[in-house]
Design goal:
Length: about 160
């Protein structure tokens, strides 16, 4: 008879632990702020992606300036073609900054304002550098323009509405 009391106690303890495991988890406050707000498309179908500070930090967005390519020529007396580097000179960006869309068009993301990103079309002439880490551009944003070097695919996914 003594053993039956121990068995009853063990069963009650086990049953109590099982019930405790089935209780709902405490609710966490849920933020209703969207991590990214997508603007209306422009004439080229490009939309502005505006991130919250938390989304920016979580995605690990890193920025870098467009640089002059080694051996770039001086600007000529005539004005350059819009979108082309001055004087036919080329510029360099990290290859990680270049996005290829499904039709093969190449883009980079610029940041006209903090936490606001816009795709800008570029023309990649060559990919080189140590281990193919740099893209040489014949057309794109001017030298010194800040572009996204890390987090490009995440911005493109947000722009397209992936995960909504």
């Amino acid at each position: 008879m003594r053993n039956s009391g121990r068995w009853a106690a063990a069963i009650l303890i086990t049953f109590g632990l099982a019930l405790a495991g089935c209780s709902p988890a405490p609710e966490r406050p849920v933020s209703h702020d969207a991590p990214a707000v997508i603007g209306d498309a422009d004439a080229n179908g490009v939309k502005t992606v505006k991130l919250t500070r938390q989304a920016f930090d979580r995605l690990g967005i890193e920025m870098t300036p467009v640089r002059d390519a080694p051996g770039a020529t001086a600007a000529p007396a005539t004005p350059p073609t819009p979108g082309a580097s001055p004087g036919g000179a080329t510029s360099v960006v990290p290859y990680s900054a270049v996005l290829y869309d499904p039709s093969g068009v190449t883009w980079v993301y610029t940041a006209p304002r903090p936490l606001n990103y816009v795709r800008e079309k570029v023309v990649v002439t060559t990919v080189g550098g140590s281990g193919g880490t740099e893209a040489v551009l014949s057309e794109g944003p001017p030298v010194g323009t800040m572009i996204v070097a890390t987090g490009v695919m995440e911005l493109y996914g947000a722009e397209l509405g992936v995960g909504k």
